[in-house]
Amino acid sequence: MSFLVEFAMFPTDKGESVSPYVSRIIKMIDESGIPYKLTPMGTVFEVDTMEEALNVINQAYKQLEPDCNRVYTVIKMDIRKGAEKRIEGKIKSVEKNLGKEVKK
What we know:
Helices cover about 40% and strands about 30% of the residues. It is globular. A hairpin with a 2-residue loop joins strand 2 (about 35-40) and strand 3 (about 40-45). The chain has 3 helices and 4 strands, in the order E-H-E-E-H-E-H. It has one domain (about 1-100): Alpha-Beta Plaits. InterPro entries: MTH1187/YkoF-like (IPR029756), Thiamine_BP (IPR002767), UPF0045_domain (IPR051614).
C-alpha cells in the first residue's frame, strides 16, 4: 500500500521568513530515510501505512513545539492499495502521456 502525503507545516509567530523552522522538519525527514520531495509550497513523502504517515506528521510538529506557540499545518493524502514508489511514478506517467520528459 502507498500513502502519498503532501503537507506544509510552519510557525505563524516567527515573522515573515520561517525557513529555519521548516529546515528542522526537512532534516528530520531526510535523516529518517523516508522518500520525499521538497517543493516551494510543501513536502511530499511516501510511506506504507497510516501509522507511519501520522508519525512523520507528529515528528514534524515535535521539531517546532519547543519554541513555536502557533503552528499552521495542511495535510493531503492519496492512499492506494497495491502501489508503491508513486512519488516518481506519478510524474513519469504524466511525462509518458505528454510523449516527452517534462523539463525540471
